[in-house]
Amino acid sequence: MPYEATVDKQKSPTPSINFLSAGDIIKARKTLLKWHSVHGRKSLPWRLNHSPYAVLVSEFMLQQTTVTTVIPRFSAWMERFPSIHDLALAEEQEVLSAWEGLGYYSRARRLHGAAKGIVSDHDGVIPKDEEALIKLPGIGPYTAAAIMAFAHDKPAIVLDTNIIRVLSRWSNLNHPIDTSLGKGRLTAIAEKFFPPSESRTFASALMDLGAILCTAGLPECTTCPLQKTCRATDPAKLPKKSPRSVTTKLVEYRACFQRDGLLYLEQSRGPRWEGLWVLPELGNTKPAGRSIAQITYPFTRYSVTMKVHKVEGVVPSGLRGFSAAELLLLPMPSPIRKIIGKFPSMGGCRETANKS
Ligand code: SF4
């Protein structure tokens, strides 16, 4: 049955998963794949090399980090740890150091843990079933589905940010996608639209459509391959989300101990930056005098202003001194590296800051 004859956009704001006939769905898949064969992002490094290990690494990196940021770091990572065995055998400090610039270091630890688990429990072979994947550190339902589709080309419903946006608009989903009702509807729509085979190509096509045409903000509907079947009445307002929690402002004070060309740092015990080298904390009470540097950075729902104060006297035990050259190789969180680059007396660290 033709789509226009079965749907009244004004009267039916809530999508039914039956809003298209089977024939229309097949046509929509075909036009999408045709568009993708011409416009798809085929040169992404994890598409050129879609070995299971490359897919595993890229999926961990792409959680909460943009494609542009990931591309150079992914390539450097694959040179440094070319196989899952190389990664499993690496020291944690080396892994954290290679992760620098990607943020959320717990992902690096979990990827390291997953590599160790795959080597010890699966002979180094990345599992081909979602249940076994989900048992590995850092692999939730989304990453498991992505590995099934992109690494093994097995049927899987992949729902990343781009695909969620495309499907929400395509079906005119008016339920917030972070509620169980919205998630259930979206999954039902995806199950209907994803084909039983060609999962790798189809998921890539939907993702690329979201990245290239059906972008956040105003989509380019006039050139979209799904335009004929798309139900969106006001696409810029989709997908809907529940009201956001307010960003809370925080201030943290840190110490600068500099003696004889060395900067003294401590190794964080976490949980946020566990194992990384940081400037020692001074607590939440404002120290006397002016700070020598400050930056503001986002962390989950917080906006954190870090202020650094020079501290004279004896350097506390437990701190270690590093030269500017040593700092370059030290695993440290991006905000710490950036603020060290701002120290008036740390000329060598400016290079460090530019590197991150
Ligand atoms: S027609 Fe527009 S809103 Fe619908 S899927 Fe295409 S780009 Fe997105």
Q: What does the secondary structure layout of this molecule look like, with pairings?
A:
Layout: H1 3-6, H2 22-39, H3 45-48, H4 52-62, H5 67-80, H6 84-89, H7 92-98, H8 106-122, H9 130-134, H10 141-151, H11 161-170, H12 180-193, H13 199-212, E1 248-259, E2 262-267, E3 277-278, E4 293-299, E5 302-310, E6 320-322, H14 324-329, H15 334-341, H16 347-355
Parallel strand pairs: 1-5
Antiparallel strand pairs: 1-2, 2-3, 2-6, 4-5
Helix pairs in contact: 2-13, 4-5, 4-10, 10-13, 11-13, 15-16
The protein binds iron/sulfur cluster.
Iron/sulfur cluster is lined by residues 166, 169-170, 213-214, 219, 221, 224, 226-227, 230, 232, 235.
Features:
356 residues, alpha+beta, Endonuclease III, domain 1, Nucleoside Triphosphate Pyrophosphohydrolase, 2 domains, 6-stranded mixed beta sheet, 6 strands, 44% helix, globular, binds iron/sulfur cluster
Structure report:
This protein has 356 residues and is α+β, with helices and mostly antiparallel strands. It contains 16 helices and six strands. Strands 1, 2, 3, 4, 5 and 6 form a six-stranded mixed sheet that branches. Helix 2 crosses helix 13 and helix 4 runs antiparallel to helix 10. The N terminus and C terminus are likely disordered.
